[in-house]
Structure formats: structure tokens, C-alpha cells
């Protein structure tokens, strides 16, 4: 059951932020503007910008500030600039012609230097939601996006957690992810009646903390 589609990442993020049980799992996220980008870089040092509508890692750019100046990475190419205005001008030329979100950068756990995140897919069957898959997505060497269509490698959730964070309690982390998914489903159904399929993209950072990166209503 595909159900209602909702393309806007921002509308889904706003819905989840409205619930205090969930809001602490969401990285700082806001609509893109030059002022917002500068402010978030000063606060976090690195952010990810991504189209409000779109998927498959298309148009996703990592932007950062470090001792060299300001820079951004798109696909496998990184560019460095001495000052913010030079970087922002170059970034404007690279961005696809869509509205963007800015999201606080998360230091994903890694396997052999490659970032990994997790996709949890759920489908509504009658009155009940069923978990269909929980998988890890390991980025292709040299990329920061983990999408399988960009060359990422699929692992089981358990294997991904074991290999990236060998000291954490894997069962407890998987249970936390499942329980968070169930809570999010209830909130999203109240805001967007008719949804029937959801894909949750979760990050687990290097300390083992879970973050909700985004939710898709047409997960691949």
C-alpha cells in the first residue's frame, strides 16, 4: 500500500519537531538562506544542505568551516575558499535549482573510513504498520552520501552496528530505533492522514547516538 505521498522534507520535519518525544533526535534543520548557512557554520562547523524535494542523494552537498577557510564537498570533489563570501558564491553555482534545507552535520560512525547510516522501511497493512526492513547503507569509498543508487553497499542493521561501533549494545540500539519509528509513525499519521509507506533514514554518530536524518513517503 503506497498511500499518500508527501514530497516536502521540511513539512515532515516540522511535524516531527512538534513532538517533544522526537524533537531531540532531529539535527538542527532550517530552510536554506545565506544568513542561515553562515550562522549554522559558525555554530556547528559543518552542515549538509539538500533539496527540500528530491531523493537518491541528488543535490546533497556538505559545507564546512575549518582552519583552511570555508569549503564544500559535492559527490567526490571538495573545494576550499579563504572566506565565506567566495565559498557562498561558488556554492550558489553548484546547487541545483531547487529550494534547499540546511541540516546540522552529524559525524556518522564509519567502517574503514566509510560513513554508514540506516534505512528502516515500514508499510501499513490494513490497520497495522509492519516493519519490512532495517538495513545499513555504507557509503561508496570517497563519498559522504550513503545512497545505494550512488554506489553504497547494503548491510544488515546488526552487521552495520557491530562493525562501526563494536562496543555498543546492538540489540538495545535496534530496539531504540524501532521504538522511535513507532512513535514517529503516530505523529506523521496525525499530520498526514492516508500515508501508507514510510522510509526512515537514521544516523548513528560516533558516540552511538541516534539521529533522524529524514523520512520518505516513497522509499526505495
Characterise this structure.
- By secondary structure, the chain is of the alpha+beta class.
- The chain has 2 domains: 9-26 and 107-216, D-amino Acid Aminotransferase, Chain A, domain 1; 29-104, no CATH class.
- Helices cover 30% and strands 34% of the residues.
- The protein is built from 6 helices and 12 strands.
- It has helices at residues 9-17, 20-23, 34-44, 84-94, 157-164, 170-191; strands at residues 29-31, 46-51, 61-66, 69-74, 77-81, 100-104, 110-111, 114-125, 128-138, 153-156, 197-204, 210-216.
- It has a 6-stranded antiparallel beta sheet, with helices on both faces. Strands 7, 8, 9, 10, 11 and 12 form a 6-stranded antiparallel beta sheet that branches.
- Helix 5 (157-164) crosses helix 6.
- The longest helix is centred in the last third of the chain and has 22 residues, at 170-191.
- The protein is globular, with a radius of gyration of 17 Å.
- The protein starts with 8 loop residues before the first helix and ends with a strand.
- The mean pLDDT is 94.
So how many helices? 6
Rg, alpha carbons: 17 Å
Number of strands: 12
Question: Architecture of the largest domain, according to CATH?
Answer: 2-Layer Sandwich
Number of domains: 2
Protein name: YheC/D like ATP-grasp
List the helices and strands and how they pair.
Layout: H1 9-17, H2 20-23, E1 29-31, H3 34-44, E2 46-51, E3 61-66, E4 69-74, E5 77-81, H4 84-94, E6 100-104, E7 110-111, E8 114-125, E9 128-138, E10 153-156, H5 157-164, H6 170-191, E11 197-204, E12 210-216
Antiparallel strand pairs: 1-6, 2-3, 2-6, 3-4, 4-5, 7-8, 8-9, 8-11, 9-10, 11-12
Helix pairs in contact: 5-6
